[in-house]
What we know:
Blueprint: E1 34-35, H1 39-42, H2 52-55, E2 64-65, H3 71-86, H4 91-105, H5 136-139, H6 142-154, H7 164-172, H8 184-194
Antiparallel strand pairs: 1-2
Helix pairs in contact: 3-4, 3-6, 4-7, 4-8
Amino acid sequence: xxxxxxxxxxxxxxxxxxxxxxxxxxxxxxxxxxxxxxxxxxxxxxxxxxxxxxxxxxxxxxxxxxxxxxxxxxxxxxxxxxxxxxxxxxxxxxxxxxxxxxxxxxxxxxxxxxxxxxxxxxxxxxxxxxxxxxxxxxxxxxxxxxxxxxxxxxxxxxxxxxxxxxxxxxxxxxxxxxxxxxxxxxxxxxxxxxxxx
Length: 197
């Protein structure tokens, strides 16, 4: 599997998503670290019950980024997984959600960032109250914000068969549509590690 396939599917920034849901990227979209180790070397051991084929069905696209997570960030991973299960969605939906949150907030439940804020974006997914995602209190609640993201994902026909970055971008409508792809391996590793914990 070639891990350096370049994503050329979406190159249009600022697409208008039906229903007016949009969330901009964080101001600082530079990855903290880039892991150039081959994918097989960083794949987490698969706990019983996690179908490895569902985690990354299309292979990762491009160079992958990886950050070390605090206890709070791991707690947010677990909250995303719990909300995904509660929504009746599978491991792949959790991978898409976690990769999206890694790009948008580095899995930190961000409040308003003042001048560094992208409009009124907040929470794990940098959702915007002004775009109909919910109130500030709602979108800074990990379960609510994940459920809102997953609701948007469910409305994307064929999201299960799309590359991760295309599925995430269709929901998020970011000015940086290709940036979600860099987090797919770490998101898959986190789902493999925590899906059954």
